[in-house]
From TrEMBL:
Chain coiled-coil ranges: none
InterPro entries: Homeodomain-like_sf, HTH-like, HTH_AraC
PANTHER family in alphabetical order: ARAC-FAMILY TRANSCRIPTIONAL REGULATOR, TRANSCRIPTIONAL REGULATORY PROTEIN
Top-rank lineage group of the source organism: Bacteria
GO molecular function: DNA-binding transcription factor activity; sequence-specific DNA binding
Keyword Nucleus included in the entry's annotation: no
One Pfam family, short name: HTH_18
Domain HTH araC/xylS-type, chain residue ranges per copy: 183-289
Lineage start: Bacteria, Pseudomonadati, Bacteroidota, Cytophagia, Cytophagales
Official protein name in the record: Helix-turn-helix transcriptional regulator
Keywords: DNA-binding, Transcription, Transcription regulation
Alphabetical list of Gene3D superfamilies matching this protein: Homeodomain-like
Length: 291
């Protein structure tokens, strides 16, 4: 029997010990559904009229689409559809582990926070994707001895199709020292997120902090990042901190002070000034506007 759910919320208990599960679902999704931060990835195939809030993105979707939920990016959903049938699979990074598959995961829209988490599908594409989910359901419920390998193959094919349907910007080419150090800087920056607790605040907040961790002079780091990306190191840091600040304001009940401390600000007033400079609004105003 295929498990059904009336919404898109899941808990770690929904995952098998191997770190994978797949569902066919029906029924309406509650109007405002906020996902907590999890340790697993999720891919949803569905048809409907919805608004998806992912990180600081607001995406209006209709018809049939794939939605990729990244454990590093909290999300919420406003559903205006009639609860059409949908599919979802959940899996941990450990389940899909393996050099090539892990690289595929990290380069896919599922992992990159700068890519859209939604891919609209044509009727033909929807039929193909539905077939993949149906295949995963059959394998997951069956007793095939190498079922896990087949499930990983289906996931790999799904991710490849996502890359084909929604091309993303290629990673920075490691053709020279500047490109290499820039890539390492961006990976180190992104690796600090998400912030899970205010008790473990952000450690690297300045170009000097990152230069020390990368064992290079700060001037070299700044020149390399500006040369490769066109933006200063400080701008990359500020923009990423702002994205996390928006996510914490929207998806947690932490106080503004706790959010400020978790992001490495010594005083809430410093955070208020920073947030207003980047967004034009103070944190409390932004939070109220998202309620």
């Amino acid at each position: 029997m295929i498990p059904a759910s009336s919404n898109l919320t899941y808990t770690d208990a929904d995952l098998t010990p191997k770190g994978f599960n797949v569902y066919e679902m029906s029924g309406a999704v509650p109007n405002l559904l906020v996902s907590g931060r999890r340790d697993y990835y999720k891919i949803v195939l569905r048809t409907g009229d919805m608004t998806i809030f992912s990180g600081d993105q607001t995406i209006e979707v209709k018809d049939t689409y794939l939605f990729f939920a990244n454990p590093h990016v909290p999300h919420s959903v406003v559903d205006r559809s009639n609860g059409e049938k949908r599919y979802a699979c959940l899996f941990t990074e450990a389940f899909i582990a393996g050099r090539e598959r892990t690289e595929l995961l990290h380069s896919s829209p599922l992992f990159r926070v700068d890519a859209s988490p939604v891919i609209p599908l044509t009727d033909e594409q929807a039929v193909f994707m539905t077939g993949l989910f149906r295949q995963m359901l059959l394998v997951h419920q069956g007793d095939y001895a190498r079922g896990d390998d087949l499930l990983k193959t289906c996931l790999e094919l799904l991710l490849h199709e996502a890359l084909r349907l929604q091309p993303i910007q290629p990673g920075l080419p490691a053709t020279n020292g500047a490109a290499r150090i820039t890539r390492l800087f961006l990976e180190l920056l992104e690796g600090q997120f998400p912030i899970e607790t205010s008790a473990r605040p952000l450690q690297a907040r300045t170009a000097n902090d990152f230069a020390q961790r990368l064992s290079v002079h700060v001037n070299y780091l700044n020149r390399a990042v500006k040369e490769v990306t066109g933006k200063p190191t400080s701008v990359h840091i500020a923009e990423r901190v702002a994205v996390e600040a928006k996510a914490l304001l929207q998806h947690t009940d932490w106080s503004v002070a706790d959010i400020a401390y978790s992001l490495g600000f010594d005083y809430p007033t410093y955070f208020n000034n920073f947030f207003k400079r980047l967004t034009g609004r103070i944190p409390k105003t932004f939070r109220k506007a998202k309620v």
